[in-house]
Amino acid sequence: MNYEEKIQNSETKVFKVVFPNITNHHNTMFGGTVMEMMDEVAFMTATRFAKKSFVTVSCDRIDFKKPIPADTLIELIGRVKYVGNSSLKVNVQVFVEQMYDEVRERAVSGDFTLVAIDAYKKPVRIFPKD
Ligand SMILES: CC(C)(COP(=O)(O)OP(=O)(O)OC[C@H]1O[C@@H](n2cnc3c(N)ncnc32)[C@H](O)[C@@H]1OP(=O)(O)O)[C@@H](O)C(=O)NCCC(=O)NCCS
């Protein structure tokens, strides 16, 4: 499988229901919970891409463009956008969908950097040198 195919095949899509237990006093989704879900999707994407053990080392700016109201569905999509030696960057986008209308829009996006580690928790190359 070539590099582009690996990126395509590891694209990771997760749907969630925005139940009241994950909303705040504005009746919209709590930002910290969105970030937790994004980090998890980034982790799944990295792991499915490289089949290595990853930890999150940083996240770049996360843009909350639209509120995510209660009683909606969200889809999180993770895609590898950059591969370094031991690190890679995953872009995660969050779309909000109305349950009873054909309305879907992007609400949140951000990039997460993860590092592949060995059994001693030290960085390891994602792919061996050519
Ligand atoms: C991840 C960790 C092992 C990296 O160790 P380190 O000594 O900083 O590693 P290095 O300096 O050799 O850098 C390793 C890679 O990470 C990248 N990196 C390190 N810190 C980074 C940061 N803050 N942002 C982006 N990339 C970073 C380096 O650029 C390098 O990339 P490359 O190999 O692709 O060139 C260490 O920082 C760590 O254990 N952090 C805690 C991780 C954690 O607990 N996460 C939360 C739970 S998952």
Layout of secondary structure:
Elements: H1 3-10, E1 12-17, H2 31-50, E2 53-59, E3 63-64, E4 72-83, E5 87-98, E6 104-117
Antiparallel strand pairs: 1-4, 2-6, 3-6, 4-5, 5-6
Coenzyme A (COA) binds next to β2 and β6.
Organism: Kaistella antarctica
EC number: 3.1.2.-
Domain HotDog ACOT-type: 8-120
**What is the H level of CATH, i.e. the homologous superfamily?**
Hotdog Thioesterase
Work out the strand percent. Answer: 35-45%
Bound molecules: coenzyme A
Number of helices: 2
Mean pLDDT: 96
How is the biggest beta sheet arranged? 6 strands, antiparallel
- How many domain regions? 1
Backbone CA Rg: 16 Å
Topology pattern, helix = H, strand = E? HEHEEEEE
| Structural class designation | alpha+beta
CATH class: Alpha Beta
Task: Briefly summarize what is shown.
This protein is of the alpha+beta class and 130 residues long. 22% of the residues lie in helices and 41% in strands. It is built from 2 helices and 6 strands, in the order αβαβββββ.
